[in-house]
UniProtKB/TrEMBL annotation:
Name of the protein in question: HotDog domain-containing protein
Keyword annotations of the record: Hydrolase
Gene3D superfamilies from the UniProt entry: Hotdog Thioesterase (3.10.129.10)
Keyword Membrane: no
InterPro entries named among the record's database cross-references: 4-hydroxybenzoyl-CoA_TE, HotDog_dom_sf
Family classification: Belongs to the 4-hydroxybenzoyl-CoA thioesterase family.
GO molecular function, one term: fatty acyl-CoA hydrolase activity
Cross-referenced Pfam families: 4HBT_2
Length: 158
């Protein structure tokens, strides 16, 4: 529960990369808020925008690509057309071939976070769809490290 409360207090300053998204009429569901499935599309879009612009990633030719192996989302408030969403992106952990992203959705002009999601990608070789024994490419790793946010150390209960 503490982690949920911590996520609910996120601000735009917690995210080194921000991408605007103009909502569309078709993003709304029958309850007049953005449909839950759209959040995952947006999270995938902000991640891939960053990879393409800042990590020398080309979806058509890069020898490795990120396969999503886990995702989830916590919702704190709704957003609906015609609002402009601001998507915040940060990296919480980088492994040998994996990366854990945290993505927040804000409504432009509103400070409270509407949702926070997590995507975990494993970078795999294009030919085998398996992680490379040497891990992810160095240019990719360097680009992701620019978004890496140091996590507080957990104190032992012992």
């Amino acid at each position: 529960m503490a982690a949920f409360i911590q996520l609910k207090t996120r601000s735009k300053a917690d995210y080194p990369f921000i991408l605007d998204y103009r909502t569309r009429w078709s993003d709304n569901d029958m309850y007049h808020h953005m449909n839950n499935s759209i959040y995952n599309f947006l999270y995938d879009s902000v991640i891939n925008t960053y990879l393409i612009k800042h990590c020398a990633f080309d979806p058509q030719t890069s020898p490795q690509y990120g396969m999503v192996v886990h995702s989830h989302n916590d919702y704190f408030g709704s957003i609906s057309f015609p609002a402009v969403a601001e998507l915040g992106l940060r990296v919480n952990q980088i492994g040998n071939s994996s990366v854990t992203y945290e993505i927040a959705l804000f409504e432009k002009g509103v400070e409270t976070v509407r949702s926070v999601g997590e995507f975990i990608q494993v970078f795999v070789d294009r030919d085998t769809a398996r992680p490379n024994a040497n891990g992810m490419r160095e240019d990719l790793r360097q680009g992701l490290q620019r978004l890496l946010v140091e996590q507080p150390k957990r104190q032992s209960k012992i």
